[in-house]
């Protein structure tokens, strides 16, 4: 895989509650995931790591003959992880209320399958700009969609990070599933809001287009977020799909 990835605690937080994984499923499909934990003490860190560990274990032990089965099985796996995180939060008061976001993508031939909960994001990067593929499950996003606030108001809204959906906060979970076709030269960026809250999309796109080395771009994105305050954990994965069997 041509991929760059990294995570940084930022300049304010005492813990890095982000977690991520880059690997392949048992049948060789690239799998990339970013999780941003939420909750007091170390709870957010526990939730995101539980989720990423579950993803890694499931990926490395499963393979699929049909795409429909792949998508069904992954939704079920994420929902099982949701239940495990929810039950862990209920059984230990130190972990009460913990949860995590998730943005995950799997390449299957010329197709990209996306699984998403929360406000971590997936962007598709092209020569002429970048497109946000995922929808933030936040209060502000719902207000923006309904026309109750403007884009500029959304950027400054005091509750812009209030999640309406997360993994581990309820016993049941709805997972967004998206399917994309990629073309040559497409890049994909998975990232936590510690990047997008501090670096605007235009600057993100310009940084990524400056070099063809995803690892260099990731480091420059992290540096830019820290230069603009670094008020949250910062995690980014940049992936360039290649033809696979």
Automatic annotation (TrEMBL):
One Gene Ontology MF term: protein serine/threonine phosphatase activity
Superkingdom of origin organism: Bacteria
Entry-linked InterPro entries: PP2C (IPR015655), PPM-type-like_dom_sf (IPR036457), PPM-type_phosphatase-like_dom (IPR001932)
Occurrences of domain PPM-type phosphatase (ranges): 2-241
NCBIfam families: Stp1_PP2C_phos
Protein name: Stp1/IreP family PP2C-type Ser/Thr phosphatase
Organism: Alkalibacter rhizosphaerae
């Amino acid at each position: 895989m041509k991929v760059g990835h990294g995570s940084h605690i930022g300049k304010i937080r005492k813990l890095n509650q982000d977690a991520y994984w880059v690997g392949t499923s048992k049948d060789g499909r690239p799998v990339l995931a970013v999780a941003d934990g939420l909750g007091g003490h170390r709870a957010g860190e526990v939730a995101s790591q539980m989720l990423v560990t579950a993803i890694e274990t499931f990926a490395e032990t499963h393979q699929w003959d049909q795409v429909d089965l792949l998508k069904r099985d992954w939704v079920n796996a994420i929902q099982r992880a949701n239940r495990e995180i929810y039950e862990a939060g209920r059984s230990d008061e130190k972990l009460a209320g913990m949860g995590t976001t998730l943005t995950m993508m799997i390449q299957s031939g010329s197709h990209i399958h996306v699984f998403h909960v929360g406000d971590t994001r997936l962007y598709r990067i092209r020569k002429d700009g970048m497109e946000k593929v995922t929808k933030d499950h936040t209060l502000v996003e719902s207000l923006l969609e309904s026309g109750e606030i403007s884009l500029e108001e959304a950027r400054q809204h005091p509750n812009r990070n209030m999640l309406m959906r997360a993994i581990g906060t309820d016993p049941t979970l709805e997972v967004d599933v998206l399917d994309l076709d990629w073309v040559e030269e497409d890049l994909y960026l998975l990232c936590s809001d510690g990047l997008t809250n501090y670096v605007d999309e235009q600057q993100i796109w310009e940084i990524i287009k400056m070099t063809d080395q995803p690892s260099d771009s990731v480091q420059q994105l992290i540096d830019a977020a820290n230069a603009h305050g670094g008020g949250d954990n910062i995690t980014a994965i940049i992936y360039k799909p290649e033809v696979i069997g």
